[in-house]
Write a structure and sequence with these properties.
The protein has 116 residues and is of the alpha+beta class. It has 3 helices and 8 strands. The strands form 2 sheets. Strands 1-2-3-4-5-6 form a 6-stranded antiparallel beta sheet. A two-stranded antiparallel sheet has the order 7-8. It starts with a helix and ends in a 14-residue tail after the last strand.
Length: 116
Amino acid sequence: MGLSLLLEKSGGGVWFYERKGLESDKMASLASKLGDELIPFASDVDGNLYVVDGGRRGAVFEWDSDGRGTEVAASFEDFLEQLRNDLLSNKFEFVEDCGIVEGVSAGKGGESKGGK
């Protein structure tokens, strides 16, 4: 899986919008608590997650204390493609300890599926 290679190379330090990639031991710990074929791969400062749902063809969902939230991509590959497209649009910027956020100069039309 592309996610395991990405995390192995980065030690979990990859940002997915405002959520930072989890280290593999944290992923395993959270996955055992979430169950139901859910694989958490990134978390924000409040503990909100991005999860891959293995039972739904690998769709990516937001996850918070209330449980599963919005589907942000039909697959992990689609999620990464949207992130790549957003980065190439030059409408997003990296902010230390915050992640990849829509820039102030982005203006109108900078909507994204991820990170909302």
